[in-house]
Write a structure and sequence with these properties.
- The structure is a single chain.
- This protein has nine helices and eleven strands.
- The protein has one domain: TIM Barrel (Alpha-Beta Barrel), CATH 3.20.20.
- By secondary structure, it is an alpha/beta fold.
- The strands form two sheets. Strands 1-11-10-9-8-7-4-2-3 form a nine-stranded mixed sheet. Strands 5-6 form a two-stranded antiparallel sheet.
- The structure holds 2-acetamido-2-deoxy-beta-D-glucopyranose (NAG) (2 copies).
- The site of one 2-acetamido-2-deoxy-beta-D-glucopyranose has 5 residues, from α2.
- Belongs to the AIM6 family.
- One of its GO terms (molecular function) is phosphoric diester hydrolase activity.
- This is Altered inheritance of mitochondria protein 6.
């Protein structure tokens, strides 16, 4: 595989140590979290709906955060807690065994896609994370300090930026729009950075060229923010183009295919890069 030197240089700027793969909408799989963890893919996504019309007491609020792609598909046995949070806590605390550990050294990025109204859904999501929070397992921003935890929670979809910013300590972060990092501010007197937005994304259809994609990746990295393009074609050549540009999280549904593609890319481009560095 021949890649231009420029691409190799860009690849060097990829800032994650784990496989640069994000498992998109993995609740559609029979065993959602596990398909990713079995392949050491450390970024997963859950779509959540808050059904406020039901009368449940606060103690079981987490069970109302139902995981589904559209509200018509809601299966009330599938909750954010049962599919994700309980398993994640168990893997961290050693009561559930996992092929891939989740730890500060090998953290999991959990994207929570707010499908229902943002401000209404924020507090139930915040509450559902309480066990992980109480265990000290969440990446947290407090007193101007960002502390890496075993799990970094990033809100996407309808996640309300104002609630994210207002939280102190902050442990739900915000998936920003990669196109607007230079042209907008997250709030008065604030700048974009990983303490608000460790991840910036955009729909692939609104990016016009590979060159623009590479520029967006560089822009995000200027802010210390990692990148993700979604709704991309599911092909090895597309994935390779993102990795060559240093894009951090390749968004994919076919995890085995993307994982195999990364293995090949990493074993060809990685050594080529080291050889280049050795030549000085
Ligand atoms: C994950 O791996 C475990 C053990 O390695 C296996 O029992 C389980 O079936 C796998 N699950 C999936 C969804 O691949
Ligand atoms: C460990 O995780 C399990 C599974 O989520 C949970 O039931 C248990 O309460 C946890 N224990 C501690 C000490 O966090």
């Amino acid at each position: 595989m021949l890649l231009p030197l420029l691409s190799l240089a860009a690849f060097a700027s990829t800032s994650i140590a784990v496989k640069p793969i994000h498992s998109h909408n993995d609740y559609t799989r029979a065993v959602p979290l596990w398909t990713a963890l079995n392949l050491s893919i450390m970024s997963v996504e859950a779509d959540v709906w808050w059904q406020s019309s039901q009368l449940f007491v606060r103690a079981v609020l987490a069970f109302l955060l139902l995981v589904a792609h559209t509200s018509g598909e809601i299966d009330k046995t599938k909750t954010l807690n049962s599919l994700y949070l309980a398993n994640i806590l168990g893997i961290i605390n050693g009561t559930i065994s996992s092929p891939t550990p989740i730890s500060v050294a090998n953290p999991l990025q959990l994207l929570i896609d707010f499908k229902s109204d943002g401000p209404t859904t924020y507090q139930p999501v915040h509450d559902a994370l309480q066990a992980l929070r109480a265990g000290g397992h969440l990446t947290t921003y407090s007193n101007s300090k960002l502390t890496q935890g075993a799990v970094t929670v990033v809100g996407t979809g309808n996640t309300p930026l104002a609630s994210v910013i207002a939280a102190d300590p902050r442990d739900i972060f915000f998936d920003s729009d990669i196109r607007h990092l230079y042209s907008t501010k997250p709030g008065v007197g604030l700048e974009w950075g990983p303490e608000i937005s460790p991840l910036a994304s955009v729909d692939w259809s609104s990016v016009s060229s590979t060159a623009q994609m590479q520029e967006l990746v560089r822009n995000a990295h200027d802010f210390g923010i990692r990148t993700r393009f979604w709704d991309t074609p599911s092909s090895v050549s597309t994935w390779n183009t993102f990795w060559a540009a240093g894009s951090d999280w390749v968004n994919a549904d076919d995890l085995l295919a993307v994982s195999n593609a990364w293995g090949i890319f990493d074993s060809t481009v990685g050594p080529a890069l080291k050889a280049l560095e050795a030549e000085g």
